[in-house]
Amino acid sequence: FQGIRREVKGSAEFKISLYDLQTACYQSLQRILVLLGRTNDALLIAEKSRNRAFVDLLQERHNKKSKGAVPKIESSPETVEELEKLVNRQKATVLYYSLAAGYLYSWLIMPHRGIVKFHQTCLIEDEEELEKPECERGGYMLENHIQSVRESLGIDNDSAETSNKDEEETNTSGVWSNHLEELGDKLNQDSDRTGFLRMVNRSSRMNASSYSLSSLFSVGSVGGGSTVGGLTPSRAGSTRSRRSGWQGHSSLRNLYQLLIEPMEDDLPEGYPCELLLVLEGDLYLIPFPVLKGTNCTEYLCERFSLLVIPSLTNLKTKPIKSKPTGEAGPPTKLVVGNPKIPSSVTDHWGWTDIPHAEAEANIVAEILQTKPVTGNQATKDNLLAQLAEAESIHLATHVSWKLSAIIVSPGEFMESKSPTGGNPRRYSIHNDTIHEEDDVKSEATTIELPALSEFLLTAADILKLKLSAKLVVLSSCYTRDKHGCATSDGVIGLSRALLAAGAQCVLMSLWPVPDTAVKLIMKAFYSSLLQGSRVSRALAEAMTAVQTTKYFQHPANWAGFVLIGQDVKLTHRVAMMGQALREIISTP
Fold first, then answer.
1. Within its chain, how far is the Cα of 498 from the centroid?
2. DSSP states of 129-197 as a string?
3. pLDDT tens digits for 515-534?
4. Which of 54, 242, 69 lies closest to 139, judged by CA?
5. Terminus-to-terminus CA distance in the chain, angstroms?
6. Quick check: 403 and 458 in contact, CB under 8 A?
7. pTM, full prediction
């Protein structure tokens, strides 16, 4: 399939259909190798599977730039020994997870010790359910645990809110959510000619723990339906119907038993140790920092500095150099806060003014000794002009996870107010216009908005950039409406786009956090970075600092931050001085 996909001259849709079939084959092969006892080879196949879209993207870029001979492209390791060498190049212990056809496979890999342990779990609680059609199955263990954790932390109240609404409003919300997903797919499809983001997200959906081998081939057939339409409704319904099984801290213990406990005896001891998590799909939504076992008194973030990567191949990705060495000046920083959004956009999309984000941007800019970009200045064109050269980027803005987009100011716009009325409204989205239909009147009133491309910095837009940033912080702590609950597609889409564009590390918030807690986290995080710490250590120290305060001890205030990428240090002159002092003190 890999050879066919590279040689075929068909449409992008045809290539993506082949990609789906290849995904199904990789999952089948993982299962077969595990059954044969060849678990190390199954790890190699898991790594190859999740790198395909990135390798295709690199191939496409090199083909455009080069004429004649094509430069050598970093590809997936071909042997288990090559995988182990990647781990040996750094000092963190690696927990590698793969979701394949209803199973969770996990490997513990340690530097200079190789693959230490393998474990597998069937995520369909009744294995007989694997043979049933997807719509008739029950007991999706991983989805249930994730949903229960989010509800017990008080960060996902959709079900509670929905139960208090009447049926008509619930249907309206569902239609709006579906429109957002369709629009997000369209935005990525039109702007991402290589198909990278669509492949990444489709692979994530096909790797859902609720998929059996038979259902994988049925949805992934050439010319068949999209995995989006076949998967989302049934999964949503199944999780909502079985949420009452786990409540409070038991859901955290269940996830710990599923993900960490099988490897517990072989994990390194003594803080600070680095733990590298290789994740995919819904695993990105798990708040790993707050997990702890039944007999353990410490959270995982108190035992380890945590870092997430999409694949081990990411460890050997080389950063993009924006300037020749002789021309390099002092590294720049870009800090953005509270882009100005016109009222017409706010009324219909829900992105309100966020003065606390502007206050956060001012605090971060003061620490980094730079000037923040806020309000009307935070336009898409202005940001695109500065993103490529910045060593560190901090974005305190709204984020639409369903659109995989960062919300920025559209620049010049006309303020307008939408018509108001007491009747419920339905929305249909066509290109850059929202049509509002009144239930009573037969004629629809059309409200013109700025073009979507003017106030959305999408994952596809980011993918076209060449970033030199060591660190990108996406502080979406203020989005508390229908866009604000992170989805696996949104997290994966934005993070993979930033990494593929050249960023070395991305910090994201998975749910809204109180304003004061955000400021405490960011102050402690950047202060630790400027003292010479690596990003994983800086985040661990920031979480500990907030956790020990009187008013923000609850994990919902600090456990939702995830680091994705490499464990970098800043080259800010204060940070370099801090690094030097740290080295001198540690080795007199």
1. 10
2. GGGS-GGG---BHHHHHHHHHHHHTT---HHHHHHTS-HHHHHHHHHHHHHHHHHHHHHHHHH-TT-HH
3. 888 999 999 999 999 888 89
4. 242
5. 56
6. yes
7. 0.81
